[in-house]
Amino acid sequence: MNLLTLTEKVSLAKSDKHFLNALLLDYMPFIKKCVASSFFKSQSRADNLTDAMLAFAHSVQTYNQEQGAFIQYAATVIRNRLFDSVRKELSARKRFFSFSTLINEKDTTWETEISLQAYNKAEEEEKLSLEIEEINSEFAKWGFSWAVLLKKCPKQERSRRIAMHVAETVRQDADLLADTLRTRQLPVSRLAALYPKKALENYRHYIIALIILSQGDYPYIYSFLPHHFTIEEENS
Amino acid sequence: MKGVIVQVGDPKSIVLFNNGKIQAIPTPPDCHMGMVVTVKNNNAIKIIIITSIAVLLLALGIFIGARYWGTDHPPVEKPWQGGHGHGYMMERGR
After folding, report:
1. What is the ipTM of this complex?
2. Which of B17, B22, B32 to mutate to test the interface with A (most CBs of A within 10 A)?
3. How many structural domains is chain B composed of?
4. Can you say whether residue A154 is alpha, beta or left, with left for phi > 0 and alpha for psi between -120 and 50 degrees?
5. A163 lies in which domain range?
6. How many CB atoms lie within 10 A of CB A211?
7. Mean pLDDT of the region A7-32
């Protein structure tokens, strides 16, 4: 994939979910930078990142070469999406104010056009819905459902972080991942050397769900998984 | 906190939130699978509880203060018990 130009990657990602997910992962620093540059104190950074990832996925779907460089296009779509969500929130609080001072007047018309073209809520929700249906059938193969996950999901943030680290460890190790996918069971004995056995036993379903969701088949749902900012990104 | 509805139910639907939590929330109107929802934490109860505790502690502090330090306690005068004090030595000298 590295030999392809960005435009080629984007056109491939339009039809291939794995390419789209890979592109999302590759451009995560860029997405986080966009979030950091248009971050409003009233907003949650995690919410902004989810919005930005969804906007990036949309910009891949709606991009054509005539619109110039993809990065510039994606940055505009992400920025407009974040502004839209701030506008919505402020209007909900009855404290709407104009962003005319924040946006260059010359670019406004062009950017609004791109934003409208790129952001289609119904289409986005339809894609999410299709992915959830696929996830449901995948979960059924593993013998659990969202209702089970609801009961097994760690309540504490610290426990969720441990579960995420476990999922990441499995995902990074090709052998562990292949074993997990083949046997459809978490290799608890091998992971017990690194993580507390009790956590592995208790959050087994949740960890497996994280592995399934972050494998690359569900780029839209992937936007709803936690992606933490590093300290440098927080300060930028 | 943003999330996506992964299972619609009545009266509650299951939501995957972007902090990794999977939670059941009351089903919103026009709810469908894939619907993006934003849930705001309601801090009103927290604020009320914290304020009540603060007020109670303050009242307790005022009560204790008034009970032990607020009233005027005159120094207690005890009758002379005798012993090897100044008076005894003076008596012996005489």
Report:
1. 0.79
2. B22
3. 1
4. beta
5. 143-222
6. 21
7. 87
